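WARN retry 2 of 3 for item q-0093 after timeout on previous attempt; input resubmitted unchanged.
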Amino acid sequence: MILRPYGIVLDGRLEVGVEAIFEGKEVREIRPHTGIPSPFVLSPAFVNHHSHLEYRGLMGAIPAREYWPWIREITRMKRTQEEEIVARDARQAAIENRACGVGAIAEHSDRPVAAEALVAAGLTGIVFQEVITFFETQGPQEKLAAIESRAESQRAHGLSVHLTPHAPYTVDEDTLRTLAAKGDPLSIHAAETPLEDAFFREGRGPIGDLHRELGLPMRTAGVGVVEYLAGLGFLRPGVQFVHACAIDDGDIETIAQGGVAVAHCPRSNRTLGCPIAPVRRMIEAQVPVGLGLDSAASSGPIDIFAEMREAVESSHRLHEPLTPEAVWRMATAPLPWSFPTTGWIAIHVADAHHTLDLIERGRPDRVEQLRLIEA
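OK item q-0093 returned
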């Protein structure tokens, strides 16, 4: 099969005047045009490295512009939702991911609805069944059994599903250590906010205040959250840190040496007032970084182009600019657990001359999935 777009995005760079020859599932050759091109750009499908499909119905529902009030409110609102409505929201979010060119997702799932939504939308990826034992620190076994039951129901849809901690401070230490030791794929919200370091270093801040209010055991470790997780076995290949905003150069070196990947979610970070993640320094340290859309509740409409634009803009605000090509690579990077995407996408943006044109002018309604390569 020969596809003759006017350009192909190769390693993040828009190359014009070339066509692709496919043989089975592989691109056998990229060569100069041998005929009149069609008015689209060909690119590998996008990859959403971090998602919460089930929060689609909460888009715009939480006005808080700071992390702690937001996380408390979404926790409250989740308890008011019916599972049937959550399942509907997840299906809608999966469809919207597909529509903007996403082919694979690393999905964080609390309720047992995400796998069905992914499969129904023609997406592939991996599902992380979130573990939260905040209120079961003295005896989480019953809660873990219930979570495993949810995971098993999701495995029935044919996707890989693994129990994963929600965040270091929402899961008891013994469970954190046990999940890390299993050696399974893990994806954990980590260093999303400086509040985590304040809690683990000195027991300060609202996380510590909540522990004291509820009479929960403190975990003052005298180190930051990255070092805390390292001590529990999380610094290994197969682990993804989601956000990694509140980190310094020492943390970056630790993450890189451990072989940990990072999911960068710039729109969510901006909404919740999180620090701008030092993505360029992570990439320079050879940390694998992928782009994540997070949830519609914190990121807004599901739109990979808007996420790429924010990734570029936030890096400039930090005075550590990322190139458009680097951001496109983040948006199409394979998941760190070797899950394939569903193929390629055609992007209908007329007269784009470089990758920045595609990022600035791209919209979900200008994307068409080409199912040339099946997962």
